[in-house]
Design goal:
Strand content: 15-25%
Shape: globular
Helix content: 40-55%
Strand order of the largest sheet: 1-2-4-3
Structural class: alpha+beta
Mean pLDDT: 94
Number of helices: 9
Radius of gyration: 20 Å
Length: 192
């Protein structure tokens, strides 16, 4: 799985990302509240944190009297993309081996605290987290917008108000999301 992650496409073939593999229960328990208490963090056998990593590349350049040039927003974006590509390769490999996976979007919300728990040095920023393990259940596919909502041919075609209503109607009318609206005490799903 990790070898598959390492073979992902990478900007300039620099691999400015790192993967922190967490199996120790104490580490996973420390990560649990930072991922909003999602139990899968503590229960999954393996937690992978994918990070944008300028630390390693900068040290390599500095040891060779070269200017790293990785201290700007564009570089952060490309390192984030590299980390996400590696994460997706890992997920595909894990699922091909019969493992269950789940991305956690909480990583970017709690990056500062995750940096502390994982002892990440300056220049290493957590981008996403993936839990791996053999699933206790086999849930169906999660909902997605219809293809016409995300695919544009030749050029981007902007959406009319009516089309936005049609594209989001199914999602807004699902019982799960209606309950989400009630629980969050708002008027509609977009406000959640």
């Amino acid at each position: 799985i990790l070898a598959s992650a390492s073979r992902a496409g990478t900007t300039g073939n620099m691999q400015v990302y790192s993967i922190v593999v967490s199996r120790d229960q104490e580490v996973k328990d420390a990560l649990l509240p930072l991922h909003f208490g999602q139990k899968m963090i503590a229960e999954a056998p393996v937690v992978l944190t994918f990070c944008a990593d300028f630390n390693r590349f900068n040290k390599w350049c500095n040891q060779r009297n070269a200017d790293p040039g990785y201290d700007n927003f564009l570089s952060f974006v490309t390192a984030s993309i590299d980390a996400l590509l590696a994460a997706q390769n890992a997920v595909i490999a894990a699922e091909a081996h019969g493992l269950g996976t789940c991305y956690l979007g909480t990583t970017t919300y709690m990056a500062g605290k995750i940096i502390e728990v994982l002892n990440l040095p300056k220049g290493v920023v957590p981008i996403t987290t993936v839990v791996l393990g053999y699933a206790d259940e086999n849930p169906g596919l999660t909902d997605r917008l219809p293809m016409r909502a995300i695919v544009h041919h030749e050029k981007y075609q902007d959406y009319s108000d009516d089309e936005i209503n049609r594209l989001y109607a199914e999602k807004e009318n699902m019982d799960e999301y209606k309950q989400f609206v009630v629980e969050n005490e708002v008027e509609n799903l977009a406000q959640v």
